[in-house]
Amino acid sequence: MIIILLLLAGVICLQVFLSKRSNKWLGLILPIISFVISIYTIFNIYISDYMNGWQIFASLASTFAISIIPTVILLAISFACRGKMKNEDELQKMNI
Known about the structure:
Elements: H1 2-19, H2 29-43, H3 53-67, H4 69-95
Helix pairs in contact: 1-4, 2-3, 2-4
């Protein structure tokens, strides 16, 4: 459990570090990787012959909804850091 928490803290710190770089694409690396992993989990769902259409849809939708959460969190961190940097740049321009 401690290892998982340390890994999550490391990923969040890495996301903040990449989001604060001058290149805006660096902040999108981890969310893209997370999105690809969530798509991969959807393709790995076992669909039984006994499942009807609604059960298949519910299984796919719930798996996607749960697996997309890390992507949303990483994107929120990225946009928050970029917004803060944009505000600081505007303040520097106003001071000049």
